[in-house]
Automatic annotation (TrEMBL):
InterPro entries, per the entry: Homeodomain-like_sf (IPR009057), HTH_TetR (IPR001647), Tet_transcr_reg_TetR-rel_C_sf (IPR036271)
Name of the protein in its database record: TetR/AcrR family transcriptional regulator
Gene3D superfamilies attached to this UniProt entry: Tetracycline Repressor, domain 2
Ranges for domain HTH tetR-type: 4-64
Organism listed in the record: Amycolatopsis thermalba
Length: 181
């Protein structure tokens, strides 16, 4: 197994286990055995668990933001903001939805893992910047971002995908109010 194949298997396993169980509950041996990668190769790919966590989050960030942008981009521009919340509802309805991997990771590790905290902040900054573009203004984008984050936390805690619908209704109210200014 070459380095790239091992890295991909390790990241696949890490994502599955970290997201389902939490980072601190999953040891490197579980990643090794779940991936079928030797311990030596694991540490060649990721010298420390924090390196693996950061890589897992970066890969998840790229996939998550790409999926959101593709969904929203397929909608008419006037429907872009509501589409964000339609996409969220679909995500919240997935069987393996466990909330936001970035919030969960920061909640577990916080500032004690500065590299992870940096990746989490970068993700949140990129999402906020994207929503500012979708909304057409920084102020409205920041408000949409707050609704997205709140809905995600609520859905993660309660298991209720309807949090996206309530946030969508609030976002539509904000969009209407912004258009009358």
């Amino acid at each position: 197994m070459d380095h790239d194949e091992a890295r991909a298997k390790l990241l696949d396993t890490a994502e599955e286990l970290f997201y389902a169980r939490g980072i601190q509950a999953v040891g490197m041996d579980a990643i090794r055995s779940g991936s079928g990668v030797s311990l030596k190769r694991l540490y060649q790919c990721f010298p420390a668990k924090s390196d693996l966590v950061e890589a897992y989050l970066r890969r998840r960030d790229e996939r998550w933001r790409r999926s959101l942008a593709e969904y929203v981009g397929a909608q008419p521009p006037a429907e872009a903001v509501p589409a964000v919340f339609d996409w969220l509802r679909q995500w919240f309805s997935e069987d393996d939805f466990r909330g936001c991997a970035f919030i969960n990771s920061f909640g577990e590790l916080g500032e004690g893992a500065p590299g992870v905290a940096r990746v989490v902040r970068e993700h949140k900054d990129l999402v906020r910047d994207y929503l500012r573009t979708v909304a057409g203004s920084d102020e409205l984008g920041d408000q949409i971002f707050a609704l997205l984050e709140g809905a995600t936390v609520i859905a993660g805690i309660t298991g209720d995908p309807g949090a996206a619908d309530r946030a969508k209704a609030a976002a539509e109210t904000l969009v209407r109010a912004a258009s009358t200014r």
